[in-house]
Amino acid sequence: MIFENNQIQIDQLPQVETVDYYLLDASYLRVSYIGNAIFFAFLLIGPLVSIVIIDDQNLAFLKILLPSLWFILMLFSFWVTSKGFKLKGYALREKDILYRQGILFRSTTAIPFNRVQHCEIKEGPIERFFGLKTLEVYTAGGQSSDLSIPGLRGEAAQQLKTFIVKNTSEDESDEV
Amino acid sequence: MNQMKFNAGFLQKPERQSPVAILLILFRFAITILKQAWPVLLILFLRPSSFKGDSWTIWVAGFGALSTIASIIAYFKFYYFVEEDELIIEKGLFQKTRLNIPFDRIQTINFRQNPIHRFFNVVSLEIDTAGSKGKEFSITALEKDKAEAIRTFLISQKVDSDTDDPEVNTTVIPDKKLLHLSTIDLIKVGVGQNHLRGLGIIIGGVFAMLEVIESSEKGMMKRIQSIFHEGQELNQPLFIFYATVALILFLLISSFFMTFLKYYNLQFLRTSKGFKVIAGLLSRREQSANMEKIQMIRWTTNPLKKIFSMYDLRLLQASSSRVSRKQAFYIPGIYNHQLSAVREAYFPQEQLIDFESHGISKRIIFKRILLFAIIPMIPGFFFFNVYNSGFIAFVWWLWLPFIIWTSILYQRNWRYHISAEGIRTTKGIFGRSHTLLKWYKIQGVQKQQSIFQARRGFTDLQFFTAAGTITIPYFEEEKAHALMDFALYKVESAREAWM
After folding, report:
1. Which residues in chain A have their CB less than 8 angstroms from residue B451's CB?
2. β-sheet with B86-91: strand ranges across
3. Which helix (H) or strand (E) holds A121?
4. pLDDT, average across residues B99-114
5. B480 CB near a chain A CB, below 8 Å?
6. In CATH, what number does A89-175 get?
7. Which helix (H) or strand (E) holds B332?
8. Assign residue B92 a region: left if phi > 0, alpha if psi is -120 to 50, beta otherwise?
């Protein structure tokens, strides 16, 4: 029972890498943009205040530095959002759900159905406006392994949830 | 263990806890207030002029009366009972809270006793469920017999809902003592403790005190400064020497003190269901870990403990929040043969079968140097005069070689060992930390890579369990894919109950 014995087996195992992912709903990109815009609107307060209150000549450079920093960060964030959107995706397999995301940090997460505790469908105010939902998949223990898939059409979210719950409970009925 | 003991009416009626709870709640109030207000109180005592008049006695009396009333109300408004297959706790006067604990969600049931508990022979019962919502349940004071009965009842109920085969559980194996820390072992554990932790507490405390003193009382700061000036006039090198010796002595003594307090008379038992630990000088804690609840086991050692060939052992169990040091099932000072028994229980044959051993990529050395040395050192060029000699400059220039050295050690020591049934990781710079995980305990796998890693074909691989995460850094991508597929296959084909 050493690892090499399984080497052949491993080649024949279903591969996460070869799965085709569904992209998130196109309007989720707009949701992300709006979220970004709101965040950076709040963040603008800092630079604006600095422009108004800084009198000291020695600190005058901050008046330019802070707004430009804000601007660069904003551009960067929007760029990451637009690029990252196409990389976000989910896939269902018979026994697990996969979610892929990230541009600077790419990640692929797999949660087997027989380890899912429960599922929830959530929606934020901006998402609701576009008729989108977020599916949350919870596992036991800490938050680290909880999965959240945003940008799902209402019916898609419901179908996903039903599918996962069905598979979770099927598995449990096997065990008992 | 015998289920016949519980008639149908057990715990059906709402019951109150032991009246000792009033005292304990009051005690907890007092501790909380002291923790929050100690800097203020300290100032009051250092500055007797503020004691003018008797107003402070009124304050103390008022606080005392209010807390007592609150404690009594809390006691009378606290009920626990069983409804169908849930344990219910109801509490609160204005904001009524009802906590439902389904039996099959219960992960661990622990007892805890502080000196007040011990005096009245009551225990506090703590129940942990592994829900994602991060809830924990506790009953402040219960007569010991009753607490035992409730625990046995809850466990038996849980067994009922888990399996159809109660006969398996009726054979009661007597508890077997695996480890009993002798005084000599306790001293060894005290020596091997991380003494720097005490240093952190001292520094934190001093800063907190200085801050309070400075903000409220300018004169005090001056007084302290004058003490330091006197010290300087005395003989600076000698003063620093004495101060250092005093500090080291203090750290050692405080480590010893804490060790004795926490681990005095520690007994580690193998029970029919799993493991149990009882320890403590003033506050006795009793924790149990059911075999199937244990997700991973971790044993660590540091250079000091290595001298005594001792390990620290942690049984990582499913828990709602990130398990703090206090809650973790932790055994300090375990020897190799005792450790072997625990490993064998969690993972039969683990020490006999071959594990395939791998290292991680050397690339991680560069990442660590960049992250821990080069980036943090950049401000030095701009803001501090690091080119002159001086203590800060000395430390600053030594930092880079230190990080290079430790990063090389880190990479060299990081090993992961794979077998068909589980994975074992070994890491550490000066000490070693070993973690053992059976594949089927995993509940999620994640591959994560930064763009830099992606370009070079490396990835970090994370195995999530209900008791924490194992991360293997800088993994060759192809190997990582194979291992991810394999881990998922093992989990999805597993039939064992994993918690």
Report:
1. 103-106
2. B79-83, B86-91, B97-102
3. strand A116-122
4. 82
5. no
6. 2.30.29.30
7. strand B329-335
8. left
pLDDT digits 0-9 by tens, B241-269: 888 888 888 888 888 888 888 898 899 99
Q: How many residues does chain A have?
A: 176
Say if CB B114 and CB B326 are below 8 A apart: no
Q: Which of B322, B354, B475, B489 to mutate to test the interface with A (most CBs of A within 10 A)?
A: B489
- In percent, how much of chain A has pLDDT > 90? 51
| Helix ranges restricted to H, chain A | 7-12, 27-43, 45-53, 61-87, 125-129, 154-175
pLDDT digits (tens, 9 = 90+) for A82-97: 999 999 999 999 899 9
Phi-psi bin for B436: left (phi > 0), alpha (psi -120 to 50), beta? beta
Residues 6+ positions from A45 with CB-CB distance below 8 Å: none
User: Best residue in B295, B485, B498, B499 to probe A by mutation, most A CBs within 10 Å?
Assistant: B485
- Judge if pTM exceeds 0.90: no
Interchain pair B468, A141: CB under 8 A: yes
Distances (CA, A) of B185 to B267, B332, B335, B434: 12, 10, 10, 22
Residue B327: band (very low, low, confident or very high) from pLDDT cuts 50, 70, 90: low
Does domain B3-172 match CATH 3.40.50.2000? no
Q: What single-letter DSSP state applies at residue B15?
A: B
Task: Check if B399 contacts A (Cβ < 8 Å).
Answer: no
Residue B45 has pLDDT above 80, yes or no: no
B420 touches chain A (CB under 8 A): yes
Kind plus residue range of the DSSP H or E element containing A110 = strand A105-112
Closest of B196, B430, B436, B434 to residue B302, by C-alpha: B430
Please indicate whether, in this complex, the C-beta atoms of A115 and B447 are within 8 angstroms of each other: no
Cross-strand bridge partners of residue B294: B317
**Residue written as tokens 């763009």?**
B451
Q: β-strands A89-92, B267-270: how paired? A: unpaired
